[in-house]
Amino acid sequence: MGSTNVLVSSPGKQPLFSFGVVSDVQHADIPDGHSFIGVPRYYRHSIRVLQRAVQKWNNHQNLNFVINFGDIVDGKCPPDQSLDAVKKVNNEFQKFKGPVFHLIGNHCLYNLPRDILLPLLKIPAPNGQAYYDISPGPEYRIVVLDGYDISAIGWPQVHPKTLQALEFLEKKNPNSDKNSPAGLLGLERRFVMFNGAVGREQLEWLDGILQDSTKLKQKVIVCCHLPLDPCASSQEALLWNYDEVMNVIHQYKCVKACLSGHDHKGRHCIDSHGIHHRSFEAALECPPETDAFGHIDVYDNRLLLCGTDRMQGTEMYFNP
User: Fold this and answer.
1) Contact, 258 vs 277, CB < 8 A?
2) Residue 16, exposed/middle/buried by CB under 10 A (0-12, 13-18, 19+)?
3) What integer pLDDT is reported at residue 320 of this predicted model?
């Protein structure tokens, strides 16, 4: 239990900063189950994974912050337990001795609407939006995207973003169950209700952030619950308009990596522009006494993911 997938850094080289990562805890006080394709899910054990993660992050002593990549409580959590369950998992995150930054996922939004969820997670964006950026130091900026900006879940039923998402799904997915990709081919299988899109205003915000980062000579790490490239995800787990987002990102040389959750399997690839894409293994799918979390050491020319157990260590080199 708790074995570290160690990648050795260059002797004498200290990272510019380091941060913890975990994704898809999806805790619920219910018996174990399976995903829709039959992968085992350990709803009660997943909080133990998080507890061990927080303990290890605190023992590390040199982590500057933690990023949770979304889905802290599962959609199968009984509705009358949703608020308490989110608070319970969030309390475990708060035991980390430093800042914790959250991304929202579909399972978060199945449990609580944005107006309750975002204040609980201290997500610092206005008007129900959940995208923001942080600068851990002068050399880097971390951009957090809201992959459910345009979504049929989380917003009020009559909200323009909900109506836009439902209209989009009606055009793209002929199934009566909009969570089903049945009959959809290839990349069109992403057009399901448990995914979402980045809206126009957020795309413009992202473009402005990348312009600013370019002027400041900052490197950028983009984080989104939903993966942004097919090579790092199943077709069913992609952001609806990942191509639009990447068209913005590819206009700039400052973005070095895109990190995500949602896919659960854990994948790494490098796209045609040299950007690393890493989706993380899910804490939810760890059998008892196994783990999936890690931390990333950030250098001038690489990100070094040190994973634990099921989270594979990954070296992400790039041109500084």
Assistant:
1) yes
2) middle
3) 83
